[in-house]
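Long-time lurker. I teach an intro course on protein structure, and each term I like to show students one example going from raw sequence to a predicted 3D structure in token notation. This year I'd like something fresh instead of my usual example. Would anyone be willing to generate the tokens for the chain below so I can use it in lecture? Attribution to the forum is fine with me.
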Amino acid sequence: MSNDTIPERSDIARQDQWDLSPLFHSEQQWEDLFAELEAQLTGYEPYKGHLADSIKIFGQALEFHMEFTRKLERVYTFAHLKSDEDKANQHYLGSHQKALNLFTRASEAASFLTPEIQSIPDDIIGHFRSDDALSEFGFYLEKILRYKPHTLGESEEQILAMTREMAGGPSQVFGQLDNVDLDFGSISDEDGKQIELSHGNFSTFLINPNREIRKQAFYQYYEAYRNHKHTLATILANSIKKDLFYTRVRGFDNCRVSALFSDNVPEEVYDNLIDTVRSNLTPLFRYLNFRQKVLGLDELRFYDTYVPIIADVKFRMPYEEAVEIGVNALAPLGEEYCNVLREGLLGGWVDRYENRGKRSGAYSSGCYDSPPYILLNYEENNINSLYTLLHEAGHSMHSYYSKKSQPYVDHDYTIFVAEVASTFNEDLLSRYLLEYYRDDPRMKAYILNREIDNIRATLYRQTMFAEFEKITHRIVEDNQPLTLDVICDEYRKLLEDYFGDALVLDEDLSLECLRIPHFYSAFYVYKYATGVSAAIALADKVVREGESARDAYLKFLKLGGSKFPLDQLVDAGIDMRSPEPVKQAIQHFDQLVDRLMAVYQEL
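-- Reply from a regular --
Happy to contribute to a lecture. Here you go:
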């Protein structure tokens, strides 16, 4: 019996790790800049109480703040990336904590800026904003001034700034428990090989054609959460209470309004999403019933919902090949886009493979002065990894274009539009793969199956998550207890609604809500669902209309954070204030199900 264990960080080849040297060539450089920034914290003091004195002083204060923050983001980015390489590495955990602490102290030092800007008389701030010397700060100031009704006095803002590090406690505790302390044991595969179960390969086990292996992985994975369910429920409940604290302090009507305010997104967008998806669950039920029939099962369970329905199609794609396939799929976006992306994915942007202690999942991260780095846990036998690569590449190219086209003050785009860029890439990938395998009905069915499951996970599943967040926050807002039983009962009800009779719900599935990292960033997940809806429409435009639509889309990527996200999408031809894009996405899903059924008949 052989063993297949997760490698240590030191076992990962250098070319398979991201190259952080564009941030810092050495840890000493990081320490030097950290010390420099600590010394510059007092640089805010001369501006305090004097922002209204003159345009010159006002502009100097903003320039100092932007320069300081830009350097601070370099320090933080390096620390968090190094910490995510191995969450058990105490040295880099300490560096990350130092960076967070410096962020907190910087927020305290700069806490006077927003309330003081908001206290400047309208005629004076209007005069400042009309001056050409401050034109670069126009949208930045607009966003600050609209927060005027929700900003407190200087002393209160300073106190709130001091709470930042403490407020991150629930998320940090969850991250350490979930990524370091939970032990999922090992599973014996078909050949008797013992494979250590982890976050990184859980999804790989769920696509294994052997149902007993899928079942074992499911129950063994959730056993770890069952053993810590009371702790996890308490962590989640306190995270939501933290959200309520800031909501009430800021004077918002509820937590959701508070979370949506920065993007200028009305609650109707959120509710339209939930209502539209809830009203159109029939295509999902139809697909799940078809899946059960094809798999020849008496009943369909959660661990049967990810395995490809074409069981004998083997998928293997090494990372380098995945890059070439991905770049070819994105050819409609033009030569420049593809060349930059290829060079980045092969040249140091990506930390490719899982190692012990590495943060689970995937993300794109970076700062204004770094490449757009990507953390992966790439599995060459899992097609989901190919899609994840293209998803994160969408984020990274969005960052590349926004930093290239926008000044620092406006480069940081919102998550709302970020999820459009990432799922747009996934849509083009599916289109490419269906053509690539056009003479192979089995592979076409496999790809259609994968695309359907991708939209199911992104649109239906994330909308269910979004409704869960709405419900749990409302419970806390109503001053009702949010216990383990309440959390699991509410989640169970949603599972029953969103899956109907098409899925037999295991008791352990009610614990799923305790393992979702995004719940620690309140009202985040709905953006996946709105993002895929907008992306489907935009990808269709680029494919159908060619160069003009491509140029419009690339211009959208270059906007960065220079407009509110709904306005950016309106410019691109999509109005997310309407339920129509969500309906279009569901229709697309339904059509894919039809295509899958038709292709399956050819097999």
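Some talking points for your students: Residues 319 and 380 are 7 Å apart (CA to CA). The longest strand covers residues 186-188.
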